[in-house]
Each structure stands twice: as structure tokens, then as C-alpha cells.
User: What shape does this take?
Amino acid sequence: MRAMGNEGEETEPYAQFPPFRVDQEVAAVAAEDWGVVSTAELLRCGLSHQTIATRRRAGRLHRLHRGVYAVGHPNPPWQGRFLAAAKACGPTSVLSHFSAAALWGFTDLDKDRYPDVTIANGGGGHHTGIRVHRTTILMPRDRARTQGIPVTAPARTLLDLAAILDDQPLRMLVRRGQGLRRVNLRQISEVLARLGPRRGSARLARVTASGPAPTQSVLEDIVLDLLIGAGFEHPDVNKPLRIDGRRVIPDFRWPRERLIIEADGAAWHDEKIAREDDAERQALLEAAGERVVRVAWTQAVTQPKQTLARIRAAGAPLAHRQSASH
Assistant: This one.
């Protein structure tokens, strides 16, 4: 026997599908997954295809992709959008490429870009609103999970992006990943060796050949490129020092010369408290025998020649000097 709902619409028998229990199950799944659920998850909660359709018409479920819904309202957070895209492409799919880079914090989120999802072994079909990539190799070590979202591991993310990015933007992502301690050179070397020659592998190997450079801001990337492009030795990047029991992390440092370059980004260093902290750090470094050259955003971007002249005058070593001494 079936019960009749509003306007004569049939509903599932109350005894078979207690509505409060079903609602609790759906809410629990949505709460764990950024407010998005798949058809398979709704069926496991006790809904039928008919009741799913009924809830869609009632505005309780909002379709994001084929077989994936937002619960309660149509605008989940961007993490929910990412997870919805992965769910739509199947249980073995993962966020990848630019979406993975944003999820790991290597780059800023581009809300106008469709989510990137990689599907293994040619599975899945066309999905409107999703940028689908396919691969024949997606090993367990290439997969990870962060913020509850399946995603390519950081090193695999960089390798995938190496196939479509030029050297400079790829180098910035690699540096940012190192700075966030999401990935290191050993992990990058491992994925290059394991997956062998493929599109982008030579580029990724090339941009990491100079060693670790874990930058933490766009300005640090700009200053480091300026230093290397001008022929200076590759400095230590964000390598901690211990001075009088205090841990200090210079942006760039040449240990032999005891010379430090500090990149003063406007987003941080224009604050009064930040300026006071900078002055205290500089006094501490100089008291320990270090010399500090500060480079502001406008100096690095609009006055590169003058900035390099200041750094050269401070005694920054040229790259050929070390090799010439051997």
C-alpha cells in the first residue's frame, strides 16, 4: 500500500522509510562532505529515485552535476563544488591539475575555471561544467585526500601541470609547494622516476634542477628570479637561523657573505606591527653580524636595475665565482 502526499503525489510508506531517520542520514553525509551528496549516497540513506525527484522539486536537493546534489541550498562552498565534481566522475576519480594546486595552496583559486578531475583507465563520460582528464596510470601513491576531497598527491599535481605550463609559472608552483612543506625534491624525483618519460617530465626536472627554493609569496618568487637571472649564486631560501635562542627565517641568505635579502610585500609589511617586527628582526640579525638588504614590491617590479645594483654593492656573490675557485 502507498501513501498519498500533497496534490495526490505518492510518497514512500512511512513504516519503510521513516522520514526523520532518512533526513538525519542525509544531513550526516552532507555535513561530512561540504553539503554535497551523490545519488548512490542518497539511496544508501533510504531514499528511492522517486523520493529524490520529489525532494528536487521541493527545493531540498539542488542538482550540481548528473547524480550529485547540494543539500538544502544551491550554493555550497568551493570545496563542495570540487567534491561534487569528483563525485560526478565516479568513485575512483580525483581533483587534479589547477584544482588540485588550489586545494594544496600552490596557487590562488580561480572561481571562473571549471574543476579539473582526472579519471583513471579511460572511465567516465562527458560531464558538463567539469574539465575531465584521463590517464592510464594513477597509482595509490599518486592519490591523496585533503579537506575531505580526493586529489592528486602534490608531486603528481606538479607533474600533471608541467605538461601544460611554461617554466616560470611551473617554477613558482614548485617553490610554493616547497614553502608550504607540501612537497620536497625527493618526492618530485620519485614521481619522475616512477612514471618515466612523459609530457612535462623534462620541464619539471629542469625547473627543480637548481635545488630547493621554498618561497612563500609572489614577491619572493619575483626577487629570487631577479637574483638568479642577474647571475648571482643561488641563495638559501627561507632557511631558519637560531640567534640568541630565537628562530629567525630570512627570505634569502648567502651564508659565506652573511648577507640577507628580505622581500617586503605590501600585503604584510605595510602593517604597523609588521614593520616593528621587521625592525626587531633586522636589529637581531645585524647584532649577530648579518647584513640585511630590504627589497620592496615597487623596487623589485619597477626598479629592477637599481635593486640589483644595491644587492651587487652589498657583496652578493656571482654564480661563476664559486665554480672558478675549483
About this structure: Residues 272-287 form the longest helix (16 residues). The chain is about 45% helix and 20% strand. The CA atoms of residues 36 and 84 lie 6 Å apart. The two ends are 92 Å apart (CA to CA).
